[in-house]
């Protein structure tokens, strides 16, 4: 289908932003880890329990004003399968609160393997006659280096489960240009990848806001490219990382939005998760600080969209 | 460091092949899943237990004649965190039998996130003062679309933990050419990526067989490119998928090897895992069939190397 389910939540909350959930146990409030260690000892179970507890507090604090969360798989895998259980619990909890979940895995592989990833993150599988959604996300970030074979199994899931994908186009990191900015014929690699997103998106019905199920990841740290891509990729919704800790501001991301103020969702992870540190607040108030920062970010971005 | 630990196991076994562990519960012997369901019910725990039981049988059957296994993360994630636990158990078991483990995750992200993936799959993390290797693989496959930022944290792990990485260069799937074969200046994208592998590899000491810690994934299904890349990438060891079920044969992969018969390891997954089906053997003899096929594959490849 399309990304309409996400866009409708953005419209409803009046907030085109997503909070990244990328917790590290060294960075979360110490009392949460201490409690978990008191219960489970110095184990990966304790790490996983602490991640989930921290995320639950964040979700409770923002679910009514933020449309989506984006857990980053790496930070859960870093605590073993016990951490991956916390990823599952986090996704389930965010969905129970009505949030749209973008699983940030940047998965990629050959077709048969992408079918497995698709089942894992967007679809369902059966054990005997009992069906399970192994992770149950609403969208998955993917890497398109392998071409269409690696994308098509996901399109099937998008269609059947009303889900979406976001393909890496122009990433937010400093070295993204080493390959992505190089010319392939008369276009850059990121332009070529962007064009493929449009083409893949057109294989499914376009949603009522004009966007397909195939979004693109375009970094806030490259505002000129964001502007350019918004003009050329008319059916491709953008997931924009790099606001906040990575250096992007509201002025940098305003070009990601269409004339209706839609077309993109801006991610902040560390800026929201650890807002209590920057605000000089007690660690026990981390959720309040996160809500304050989520509101500030929303207002910052929507004001820039309105005033452009 | 380098990939010497892998190469030494290849030399010792006289076998430049790796068995991919990509099990699906529909495809493994039925009695294994039935036993797991009898114990755990129709649950993801049962699926995970069945995967591990199947893998254990394969590892027991091949560990003395095959230097390495390559579990594909997707097939474990497909059964939720319970499946990911089976990935952990499989890696630990293979290592306990002396095998080299290549975790096939094709991970990729910005630097700070790749540090998390690096800790997850190659390194260690601490909970309080207790250290854990969350997954404990010896090498990880990665995707280089984000450039050097996404690779450098892994080089640190390669150096400190004597591990390796394999970067996707020319993949085995039919659509790999859509991007990888396109010209970027006067080179193809896969040539450019290959050159980056050489450069990244040179950032660490080169091993005694002449290869760095940074390998490349080059598909058996593209023999001309395999030949070409072996000639130009002199310090880059190759992981070659696509033998067997994907259509590559020994004649196709012989170009991957250097004059000493080293420089590459050839992967077969389905061909070995499900050899009992092709051989018409009872499903309870799956491990025997896998060993037979592993021996046949070894002899097929080494004969072609000798006779070229």
Please tell me about this protein's structure:
Two copies of one chain form a homodimer. Helix content of chain A is 46%, strand content 17%. The first copy, chain A, is built from 14 helices and twelve strands. Chain A has an eight-stranded parallel β-barrel with strand order 1-2-3-6-7-10-11-12, surrounded by seven helices. In chain A, strands 4-5 form a two-stranded antiparallel ribbon. A two-stranded antiparallel ribbon of chain A has the order 8-9. In chain A, strand 6, helix 7 and strand 7 form a beta-alpha-beta unit. In chain A, helix 3 (44-62) packs parallel to helix 5 (80-96), helix 3 (44-62) packs across helix 14 and helix 6 runs parallel beside helix 7 (152-161). The longest helix of chain A is centred in the C-terminal third of the chain and has 21 residues, at 286-306. Chain A is globular, with a radius of gyration of 19 Å. The mean pLDDT of chain A is 97. The interface between A and B is large, with 73 and 72 residues.
Layout of secondary structure:
The structure is a homodimer of 308-residue chains.
Chain A: H1 4-13, E1 17-21, H2 30-40, H3 44-62, E2 68-71, H4 73-77, H5 80-96, E3 100-107, H6 111-121, E4 125-127, E5 130-132, E6 139-142, H7 152-161, E7 164-170, H8 177-180, E8 183-184, E9 187-188, H9 189-201, E10 214-218, H10 223-232, E11 238-240, H11 250-253, E12 264-268, H12 270-273, H13 275-278, H14 286-306
Parallel strand pairs in A: 1-2, 1-12, 2-3, 3-6, 6-7, 7-10, 10-11, 11-12
Antiparallel strand pairs in A: 4-5, 8-9
């Amino acid at each position: 289908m399309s990304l309409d389910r996400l866009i409708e939540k953005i419209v409803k909350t009046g907030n085109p932003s997503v909070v990244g959930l990328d917790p590290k146990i060294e960075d979360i409030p110490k009392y949460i880890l201490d409690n978990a260690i008191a219960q489970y000892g110095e184990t990966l179970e304790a790490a996983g329990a602490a991640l989930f507890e921290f995320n639950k507090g964040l979700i409770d604090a923002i679910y009514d004003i933020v449309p989506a969360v984006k857990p980053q798989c790496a930070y859960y895998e870093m605590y073993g399968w016990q951490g991956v259980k916390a990823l599952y619990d986090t996704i389930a909890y965010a969905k129970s609160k009505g949030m749209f979940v973008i699983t940030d895995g940047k998965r990629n592989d050959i077709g048969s393997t992408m079918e497995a990833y698709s089942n894992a993150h967007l679809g369902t599988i059966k054990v005997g006659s009992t069906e399970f959604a192994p992770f149950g996300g609403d969208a998955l970030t993917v890497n398109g280096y392998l071409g269409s074979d690696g994308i098509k199994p996901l399109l099937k899931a998008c269609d059947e489960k009303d889900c979406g994908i976001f393909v890496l186009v122009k990433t937010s990191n400093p070295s993204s240009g080493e390959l992505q900015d190089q010319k392939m014929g008369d276009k850059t690699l990121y332009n070529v990848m962007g064009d493929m997103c449009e083409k893949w998106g057109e294989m499914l019905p376009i949603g009522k806001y004009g966007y397909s199920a195939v979004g693109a990841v375009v970094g806030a740290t490259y505002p000129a490219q964001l502007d350019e891509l918004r003009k050329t990729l008319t059916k491709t919704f953008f997931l924009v990382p790099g606001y906040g800790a990575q250096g992007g501001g509201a002025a940098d991301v305003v070009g990601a939005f269409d004339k209706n103020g839609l077309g993109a969702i801006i991610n902040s992870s560390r800026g929201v998760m650890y807002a209590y540190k920057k605000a000089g607040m007690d660690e026990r108030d981390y959720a309040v600080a996160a809500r304050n920062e989520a509101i500030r970010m929303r207002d910052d971005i929507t004001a820039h969209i309105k005033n452009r």
